[in-house]
From TrEMBL:
Keyword Flavoprotein belongs to the record: yes
Keyword set includes Isomerase: no
PANTHER family linked to this entry: CHOLINE DEHYDROGENASE, MITOCHONDRIAL (PTHR11552:SF147), GLUCOSE-METHANOL-CHOLINE GMC OXIDOREDUCTASE (PTHR11552)
Keywords in alphabetical order: FAD, Flavoprotein
Annotated transmembrane regions: none
One Pfam family, short name: GMC_oxred_N
Residues reported to bind FAD: V133
A GO term, aspect molecular function: oxidoreductase activity, acting on CH-OH group of donors
Cofactors required: FAD
The protein's name: GMC family oxidoreductase N-terminal domain-containing protein
InterPro entries found in the cross-reference section: FAD/NAD-bd_sf, GMC_OxRdtase, GMC_OxRdtase_N, GMC_OxRtase_C
Gene3D superfamilies: FAD/NAD(P)-binding domain, Glucose Oxidase, domain 3
Highest classification ranks of the organism: Bacteria, Pseudomonadati, Pseudomonadota, Alphaproteobacteria, Rhodospirillales
Annotated Glucose-methanol-choline oxidoreductase N-terminal domain residues: 303-317
């Protein structure tokens, strides 16, 4: 579970804590100088009208797109256009960390997608937030800085993604990073992507950490060295208690460059092809049809949902799926939209006595006022908190080579996502299977580019995932039974201590599980011999010239942890390859 459990439900979620105007002025992005940024209508355009020709056209100003725009526009000889379907990041609640409660399921900042009804979740459908604003998901996510495990990337390389092993990707993580401890062999300093410690502690989380150690899980102060086993506090992408998004880190510093143009409220609708080569892109700008000519490359950075759907709407994808919706197949590429993977978290909750939790503060006028005042004065306290503060990586059984479970532990509880926080003190220990075997898909719902896509993750469809979910709940119970938590009389009320046995626990997991919003894999990277692969190791689309995908959709398998910073690494490495390839072509 994440702190989104409270949104639109608890007393403090329905009425956001007050935030003095000077605080707002200090947090909101400053006025941009230099390069153009546009969101207003530019006149009545016919579909044949073109805004001109650009060397690079990037679709999506999210985590990957903002970095790509920065890195590619460093070359003053090229022109770069960045298109974003959402608006500017000038909404106050983007910047206050706890404000993520008001950005998800908010059409101002979120696409407000939902999954199809999931058999593995006993027929439930889940909200599926995706950022629709400058900064994309980095403007609405949980801000947790996590790379995953070295084995994740070594596995990519072993399956055909040459050059994506841990030793090769680590320099790109370090290049972006500005770690609060400074530079080292593992961490970078002076980069754009700020990594800091969290600015609050909870007694109940300290007790959970101690209980995990008592259960045999080692303590750690760094989850990002290649082996993330252990329990400790998450590091976050914040600067001084304020969210640090890719729009702030990468896009804003590049806005003074005359060769970079950014358009908001501009939704891509179709890729233009001449045979097997991309020549342009159709898009709607404030609902008005237009197009842009692509002189060099079109780069899709719209994410694991939007990138494959745009390809499908353009006639690139599984021929049978396209024909079903009346879309002409321009290039039959079976893997587009397939291979969807996500992290499903199972939310176990426990009542406690004799310790303060967020439940108590959130249900008190004095508590809410105190939180607002602390943040206004110090940029600390609950309003500065990431959705999850304490993390833990463990094994569902001893036979595992590396941890296959991740915990997000919060000092709060609720019946379900969106409901009020309980009026009794409690904590939630959400645990997810880091390497799910279940595979789903993302597909267009109709030829209408404005129609919401079909998202079917197929959670818990693989028996191995059901077993891991059950064993994860067993481990959670073993941690709760340790002396450090029993000092507060920790007692399970979700899913319920009376539920016993693997099969019963697996079914209960389907009732209480929810996504952590980590969709990946729908434009899988791999060699041409792999029929499921969509892009090669240089992120070029198989069978189409001048088209790359550079976002989380290219992951062959999901990383062992939160996926935002791995996506940033993909963009950093992708930008370097794009520039190197351009230089090689010029020299040829």
């Amino acid at each position: 579970m994440t702190l989104a459990a409270a949104r639109h439900g608890s007393a403090w979620a329905r009425r956001p804590p007050c935030c003095p105007w000077p605080v707002a002025r200090a947090i909101l992005p400053g006025k941009r100088k230099g390069g153009p940024i546009a969101g207003a209508p530019i006149g009545r355009l016919r579909v044949t009208d073109s805004i001109g020709r650009f060397d690079y056209v990037i679709v999506g100003a999210g985590t990957a797109g903002c970095l790509l725009a920065n890195r590619l526009s460093e070359d003053s000889e090229v022109s770069v256009l960045l298109l974003e379907a959402g608006g500017r990041d000038d909404y106050l609640w983007i910047h206050i960390p706890v404000g993520y409660l008001y950005t998800m399921n908010n059409p101002r900042t979120d696409w407000c997608f939902r999954t199809e009804a999931e058999p593995g979740l006993n027929g439930r459908s889940l909200d599926y937030p995706r950022g629709k604003v400058l900064g994309g998901c980095s403007s609405i996510n949980g801000m947790i800085y996590m790379r995953g495990q070295a084995r994740d990337y070594d596995h990519w390389a072993q399956t055909g993604a040459k050059g994506w092993n841990w030793d090769k990707v680590l320099p790109y993580f370090r290049r972006s990073e500005d770690h609060y401890k400074g530079g080292s062999d593992l961490h970078g300093a002076g980069g754009e992507w700020r990594v800091e410690q969290q600015r609050l502690r909870w007694e109940i989380l300290e007790a959970w950490r101690d209980a995990a150690v008592q259960a045999g899980i080692p303590a750690t102060d760094d989850f990002n060295g290649g082996d993330n086993e252990g329990v400790g506090y998450f590091e976050v992408n914040q600067r001084g208690g304020v969210r640090w998004s890719t729009a702030k880190a990468y896009l804003k510093p590049a806005m003074g460059r005359p060769n970079l143009t950014v358009m908001t409220k501009a939704q891509a609708t179709a890729i233009r092809l001449d045979g097997r080569r991309v020549t342009g892109l159709d898009f709607l700008r404030d609902g008005v049809p237009s197009r842009v000519e692509v002189g060099g490359e079109l780069i899709l950075a719209a994410g694991a949902v939007a990138s494959p759907v745009l390809l499908q709407q353009s006639g690139i994808g599984p021929g049978a799926v396209l024909s079903e919706h009346g879309v002409e197949t321009r290039h039959d590429l079976p893997g587009v939209g397939e291979n969807l993977q996500d992290h499903l978290q199972v939310r176990a909750a426990f009542k406690v006595d004799g310790v303060r939790t967020l439940n108590r503060l959130a249900n008190s006028l004095v508590g809410k006022a105190g939180m607002a005042l602390e943040y206004a004065l110090k940029r600390s306290g609950p309003l500065s908190m990431a959705p999850s503060q304490l993390g833990c990586f463990a094994k569902s059984d001893p036979s595992r080579e590396t941890p296959n479970l991740q915990y997000h532990v919060q000092p709060l509880s609720t019946d379900r996502l969106g409901d009020p926080l309980h009026r009794f003190d409690a904590f939630t220990a959400s645990v997810c299977n880091l390497r799910p075997q279940s595979r789903g898909h993302v597909r267009l719902r109709s030829p209408d580019p404005m129609a919401k896509p079909v998202i079917r993750p197929n959670y818990l469809s693989d028996p191995a995932d059901r077993q891991v979910a059950a064993r994860a709940l067993m481990l959670t119970r073993r941690i709760a039974e340790q002396p450090a938590l029993q000092a507060y009389n920790a007692r399970e009320f979700k899913p319920g201590a009376d539920i016993q046995g693997e099969e019963a626990l697996a079914r209960a997991a389907g009732d209480i599980a929810s996504t952590i919003f980590h969709p990946v894999g729908t434009c899988k990277m791999g060699p041409a011999a792999d029929e499921a692969a969509v892009v090669d190791e240089r992120l070029r689309l198989h069978g189409i010239e001048a088209l790359r995908v550079v976002d989380a959709s290219i992951m062959p398998t999901i990383t062992s942890g939160n996926t935002n910073s791995p996506t940033l690494m993909i963009a950093e490495k992708g930008a370097a390859m794009i520039r190197a390839d351009r230089k090689a072509r010029a020299a040829a």
